[in-house]
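User: quick one - fold this with uridine-diphosphate-N-acetylglucosamine bound?
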Amino acid sequence: MRTSFQIISVVGARPQFIKLAPLTKGLSRRYRHVIVHTGQHYDDNMSDVFFQQLEIPAADINLHVGGGRHGAMTGRMLTKLERVFVDRKPDMVLIYGDTNSTLAGALAAAKLGIPVGHVEAGLRSFVDNMPEEINRRVADQLSQLLFCPTTVSINNLKAEGVRKGIVRSGDLMYELLANSRSLIKKNKAFLSQHGLTPNDFVLLTLHRAANVDSEQNLLRILDILGDLGTNVLFPIHPRTRHRFRKFRLLKTLLNIDHVKVVEPMGYLDTLSAAFYARAVMTDSGGLQKEAVFLQTPVLTLRNETEWLETLKMGNRLVGLSKHSIIEGIRSLPKVSKVDHRVRDKKPSSIIVEELARFLRGK
Ligand code: UD1
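Assistant: Sure. Structure tokens for the protein plus uridine-diphosphate-N-acetylglucosamine:
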């Protein structure tokens, strides 16, 4: 039964579209659900393709705030979101993950006294200057409902003294993947399109500021890729392409024969590539987890992870260490079945129900 409560979801970047997708049906069945796209990701293959493939209703409002430095970007989002919230008077604002759009949504709503629900709350890398860590700490502090995907995330919040509003929701990304599994397996066209055969390539993604913003790191990445000794499919994030271009290293990257650099891929192609790859190398939080869910070994190109549970399931932290990466590819981590605690919930229904309970009690 639909209530008259209005919920605004604020999204703006790829991983947020993925988390929103499993929720949209339940939210619009029960509430007046309004989707606000900040415009943080704006290229078709970073945004529209996700809405289409994941059947997310078109955003009701697009703020067209993309690009620029973090402060300026967040500031412009804040100004525009405040206007939308004052205009629409939502009963609740839902924010997702840890991007600048998450932070702006949390701040704009909290300043107006609108309750905030944080989807994927409680994750921590404990790297104080990581942009996402700053965003998620502030977002969690400002949220009344904290939808936690894992036990570790719940414990992180408790350790910070949070006592109210914690909900064990389970993992929406797992729910979406489980519902898409047969499509993911059937989707093979991209393999022949890129001249690849199953189990004969590694899927690589890279976009973290800490990895791609310095020339030194890009040189290191080129050195590692040159000596990797395996085919690589590398859908390149616009940030990473900009950096390679800025340091005049793009040509060198494109000239490595066994590395196939392609445009960013949509949800289905990315997940199928992770499924058919012999391994995934990534600095993405979402993809390291999705690879494990698909039982593909992962080398995570960071020194820490917010998803500690995955370290027991086939994820190995290798940073940008050439030795660890080359060794890791030679002797890949063993994958194990996904922990039942990740599988045993239906996060979207839990979130929709908890929102109802909260709004009734307001
Ligand atoms: C953002 C998130 C990160 C998330 C990632 C997923 C923050 C701080 N970071 O990082 O947590 O993992 O999204 O991809 O919010 N650009 C384009 N076209 C686009 C999108 C971006 O050209 O469609 C360019 C921007 O102009 C900018 C650069 O890529 O120069 C970086 O984009 P930005 O949104 O600032 O951060 P991401 O690196 O994508």
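One thing worth noting: The chain has a mean pLDDT of 95.
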